[in-house]
Amino acid sequence: MKILVIGGTQFIGKQIVASLAKGGHDVTVLHRRPDHDLGKKVGNLQADRNDIGAVKAAVAGKTFDVVFDTAYDWERGTPASVVEETARMFNGQISRYVFMSSVAAYAEGLNHHEGDGLAMDDHPDRYMRQKAQAERALFRLHQRHGTPVVTIRPPFVYGPDNPFYREQFFWDRIRDKRPVILPGDGRRLMQFVYVKDLAQACIKAMDVPGVAGHAFNIACPRPLTQAEVVESIASAAGKTIETVRMPREKIMRMGGHPHGPKLYFGTYFDIPPITMIVAKAQRVLGFKPTPFAEGLKETYRWYSRKHPHSEFDYSFEDSLLERVRAAS
Fold this sequence. Notes:
This protein has a seven-stranded parallel β-sheet, sandwiched between helices. Helix 1 (about 10-20) links the parallel strand 1 (about 1-5) and strand 2. The protein has eleven helices and 15 strands. Helix 1 packs across helix 6 (about 195-205). Helix content is about 35%, strand content about 20%. By secondary structure, the chain is α/β, with parallel strands linked by helices. The radius of gyration is 20 Å and the shape is globular. The model has no long low-confidence stretch (mean pLDDT about 95). It has helices spanning about 10-20, 50-60, 80-90, 125-145, 165-175, 195-205, 225-235, 250-255, 280-285, 290-305, 315-325; strands spanning about 1-5, 25-30, 45, 65-70, 95-100, 110, 150-155, 155-160, 180-185, 190, 190-195, 215, 225, 245, 275.
């Protein structure tokens, strides 16, 4: 099949492209740069996905059977109107439009099923709001025009080539023989999916009949506590790690932020939990997640090859640790 991957040069999109190309599909990526490093067989279209005019010009005269929409502009956001107009331009031409949403579309709460309500239009978090709005816009297109939409909702995605400073955060500290600060009681829940599993689920959603108009939660079924996550990450490296607990309120008062620059627990790894049930994906898509420990070991091998030792500024973490020691 002829397939377009919007945003196919980074992490999730890159994994989808690699799997599709390996499967013999004719794959083209659309992204902002004039070229890519995905191999000579992968076509290249240059456009800013937020610029609908540029996207239309880039795809003019070209036909595709399937579109994967994996791109999100983290600096400017990607409004629902952009996603909707992108899907509209392929309506009547494609057999599937697979949109990468997020567990964040639920905004809050535990054990979500796909039919649960999504974030409201006035939600203060831009990412949550826009993912939810984009899904609603796509499903309206499906209802009114038959656009063959499928939306995918992953939680934290991990694996080789992760551009976010997450698993690497802990392995850097293990390598430097430093303790890790565990915010609060360490029981805040987190849910994960291996990037290769996510890519395979997206591709399966392309092929399975009768799934147009559906959303799918894609994740390891069992959420983990933050303490379990740190232990698992250390175990994947064959190491032990010292953890130091500190009240979250104190970390915030001292300037800590889940996104940094005063980072203390991996990028966005310390946010209120949102978890979900994945039975639908298991039943309909045959989704079988890689065990977390196994995926982490492969990710650690990538980290060991690609991340030579670097010097880090640990002054903020040192100030937190000093506060803990002074209080003990």
